Amino acid sequence: MSFLNSVLKIFVGDKSKQDVKALSPFVDKIKTFESALEALSHDELRAKTAEFKAKIADANATINEQISNLTQEAETTEDIDRREDIYQDIDKLKDDAYTITEAVLNDILPEAFAVVKETAKRFVHNTSITVSANEFDRSLSGEKDYVVLDDDKAIWANSWDAAGKPITWDMVHYDVQLIGGISMHQGKIAEMQTGEGKTLVATLPMYLNALAEKGVHLVTVNDYLAKRDSAWMAPIFEFHGMSVDCIDYHQPNSAARKKAYNADITYGTNNEFGFDYLRDNMAHSPDDLVQRPHHFAIVDEVDSVLVDDARTPLIISGPIPKGDRHEFTELKPKVDDIVSVQRKYLTGVLAEAKKLIAAGDTKEGGLQLLRVYRGIPKNKALIKFLSEEGVKQLLQKTENFYMQDNNREMPKVDEELYYVIEEKNNQVELTDKGVEYISGKDNPDFFILPEIGIEVAKIEDQGLGVEEEATLKEELFKEFGLKSERIHTLSQLLKAYALFEKDTQYVVMDNKVMIVDEQTGRIMDGRRYSDGLHQAIEAKENVKIEDATQTFATVTLQNYFRMYRKLSGMTGTALTEAGEFWEIYKLDVLETPTNRPIARDDKEDLVFKTKREKYNAVIDEVTNLSEAGRPVLIGTTSVEISELLGKMLSIRKIPHNVLNAKQHKREADIVAEAGNAGQVTIATNMAGRGTDIKLSDPVKAAGGLAIVGTERHDSRRVDRQLRGRAGRQGDPGSSQFYVSLEDNLMRLFGSERIAKMMDKMGLKEGEVIQHSMISKSIERAQKKVEENQFGVRKRLLEYDDVMNAQREVVYKRRYNALNGERLRVDLANMIFDTSEGISETNKGANDYKNFEFELIRYFSMSSPITEEEFGKLTAIEITSKIYKAAFTHYKDKMARNADIAFPVIKNVYETQRDKFKRIVVPFTDGIKSLSVVTDLEKAYETNGKQLITDFEKNITLAIIDDAWKTHLRKMDELKQSVQLAVHEQKDPLLIYKFEAFELFKGMIDQVNKDVISFLFKGELPQETQNTIQEARQTRKKENLKTQKDEIPNLDERSAQNRAAGNTQRNQEVVETIVRDRPKIGRNDRVTIKHVIKGENKTLKYKQAEPLIAKGDWVLVEE
Question: Structure pTM?
Fold first, then answer.
């Protein structure tokens, strides 16, 4: 592949060089403006910002006027079809306005970038800058100490506090940084090496795009960077009258956070931006919304956010009934037992395999070895044995034999195992022997799922009474649910024991299981493994098992960031994932040249046979480097290895610092010391991102920072991040990776040729091999992993795209209902869709009586056509007639409700307006009641029409929210159940798409019918003075949690959600609809009446429920 790339470069050219060459004319233009700007006074330089904004406003003046006129027309017209057309025209004009603005920004880019660079120069060369004070300076001087007022002058200092660290401005943009800034404005990713000043580069496109006054977001991976960078860069923007804020300083849903989003430039973490989007789509009032439309975002460490975190869903969840009930504690002893039994059995099998292989019986010995590998692949004795000459080849040869013909022979290997571990796929599966062992002799069917179809047929063949038969069927379904839950719990416990290791994938701190980010080594606070796996690990580690929850709102970071009109990013390591960035986000990667050539010496990998030899070699090398006066950074992949190396250094009496997930609070102090002469720092991947190790001149003279990698990571990006800590801004340095055949990467994906070569060369223990071919072979192994991970992410994105399409429809409807301005169009469409459904269903069945009944049921009106016309007209003609009649009926009804309510509103307004601002007016459809909150003054001024608008908003929001929560649970269950389609040789994704469409179609249809039914039946009760009350501002506190789920899109705790499927949800979140009659229990006997035949029946409510839902029967009150 590298040869092919070399040939392509000869004929096509180097892409990175071509990209840089294309941007060079922009850099030349920026330089032409620099000398002119140098001649300007401080005030004249600041005036440039107003000049740029005026150009944008002039270019958009015509379109803005058109939008204003159309908005006014939409508010006044009563023609719904015309209103819908107007809204479509407005949306198109907004798109046109964006295109025009982008064209103006491209025109002013060279001068705008030159303004930012000149500002940076002036802050470097002046300890204080005096300018004429404007209103923005005056307000800023009260909040920030670097702006001081002196009569009509404002004095700006060039020193300030950046999140607790005092700084004096000393940076001016290099030419290569201008290239990075241009590429980000163009919506690309700028790959820039460590120490090249990505934070400063971002000021260029941020200033330029903030001129459009639509908001610019700078997204970081953690709150420390968000707070630091927002304070560090703020004066550059504020000097030009642009407001800067950081959302992580403020509480969610607060006025302060809303103000932060309204700032010209907003910094924040990826999680908080995503959670605020979800919170906005759970808001009950337009005042609760904090975000503006998504305009432009720059993502810092873009590969971490859009690749590593992309498939991780952000989830807002609430409690579910009986969420504290689970079987993890009960099943844990069984799993503990089976794990120890298998380990003990396979330890003996491994000893037997060694004897057989030594005696030359490779057939039986290979079988026993493969059995051990499939049962305990991470066993240290097995890994050690596999590093011996010829053993790994024997294992691979045996595995190939048993895997042939679609794994036909593999059951012979697995028949003696209790469970099988597929380490490459991260899966563990119980065998028949394991099921038998874990069930025990007393209850052999403990884990056996009943065959529903066969068992139902057996019950029906018994000839029992209706009630007895229903009871038996209910018990059968209950048993099926209980056992499927039990199997799921057992599977997750097995996974927790067999695949997840403490201090590698997670740590236990403060009696909690905390996930460690495999890319950075940092603790990911608030993140939990999904699908009950986190609870299984909690059970394994004997810590408190958290209660299960239900999803109320969810979005993946992939889909959140794709909502921005323009997205760009910056990082030191994006090139290896360039294909993924383009395919998923349509983001191109531009490799920005360094300001000074890299002087770091990157040595070829040293490959050892065993880990023990490798670690001894690492300690020897570190000792020599430290004694030579060079600082050393040792990179590890887990907490366990960092602590092991720490102990080995302590034995040699070499002073050192250890930085891992357990020591994350000391990160800033440890990194500050890491560049000192002779200093040894052991770090997990934490030292790879957002850290800058600065060196003194004596250290540079000694050879600079030495990077020692103790293992190759699955991802080349992580290794490059570690290497990038050395050699910043042309500093000297070196990097060396130590690898052994026992490392995870080499065990699972390493080339067989390396093992064969080492065997042929007769390498003994302690000997090492180093060659460029070996290093390339390791990189190929990493590429295999990356390709596999990309495939997984792409597949998961396809699942989430289905959910995302549905989310967009629901959230758009919700937004329209919340703001009210486009709600009337949505309601008209609901009336039309319901009319169409009634018409097509009944016309197809030629059922006029049911047609009449459904019109009464949903629209509370008699049929606008006779039975004769029903027979003659087409379904489309019938739909048109129903829609016209229904819409006229609805308008008349709402006008009548307004007329009924107005005298009461008028009386309250004229006699008690000093007491009430907002009032509550009750509505009822005869079954449910709804309390509508409305503004007293507006209701009075519009003759009661505002009350009707609020009634429409309230009922639409309440029904959409309730339906969406139920739908999310159903989608959770669907995603889990379709995975079984693999056994039927079907594509689960295809089935998921079909089923999800049907589910969503059903949900939308039901929402339409529920909203329409309530609106058409909604009446004001007896219009007495007592029905009007003051609306209190207090709202019941919502018991909600925000979390990020690991191993995403397997969906959050679907097992618990399945259990909650048939239970009534706890009213933790305030709902608008309340019950006004006693609750009927599922086993209570009720009387129902057939609406056509008039026949009465008495039966249990659970049997009556489906009949009532169909609409043929109604409940008779006794």
Answer: 0.74
